[in-house]
TrEMBL record:
Pfam families: KaiB
One GO term of the biological process aspect: rhythmic process
Cited Gene3D superfamilies: Glutaredoxin
CDD domains hit by this protein: KaiB_like
InterPro entries associated with the record: KaiB-like, KaiB_domain, Thioredoxin-like_sf
Name of the protein in its database record: KaiB domain-containing protein
Domain KaiB: 159-240
Amino acid sequence: MIRPILYKGLALLTPGQDVVFCRDSTKQGHWHQDLCHALQQLLDLREPPLFLVPCYSAAVDYWFDEEQQLLRVAAEVYPLAWPHRPLLDALFALPDQKTLLWQLVEDPQHPCDRLAIESYRADFPQLWEHHHLVYDLRQASPASSFVPRRTEPDRYVLRLYVASETSAVEHALKNLHTLLSQCLTVPYTLKVVDVTKQPEFAEEDQVTATPTLVRVHPRPVRRLVGHLDDRDRVQRLLTP
């Protein structure tokens, strides 16, 4: 008798409907925090979005019942991931299955607070943007940090949001141009936006503090708040 493939599957979705997932045959190599770290790197977040767990997560466990000689499966999905069961079926259902019997999980000790998650939107706007991202964590080793494959775009479009045009802003702008010329090998445009004169642009780019550097192109949109003279932070903003 051929033993069926057994594995633990985990998925973490975002409010913008991106998803990172893994199928772990060891059942110990990956956990939800690994998915959070992958999202942090993929979307250039300032920290792992642990607040998405468990509301936006799902888990599948395939095991073999030795006594009954049957393949068993447990599939659990948390409230805000519930509408995405067809996608989860595509990720985790076996070839001879059409759908999984998903069980909705309501954890009384860790209730899913939609308002609490929404409160993170200003600091993690990338999570509310749809990047058509479906990422399999098998592409990254669980023992090493995740590094996305880098490709150089044809150009960069940047916006620098400031509260007013002062000598300090001029100095920061000069330093920023120097960093960009050192970090980029392709053309770029940098538009300075005074939020006191053009608040509609700040609202469009979800800017709530100044100074903020926004990468408009290439997608996804990324933001860097403060410390514009930090080369490493600017470099992470520019990484495709």
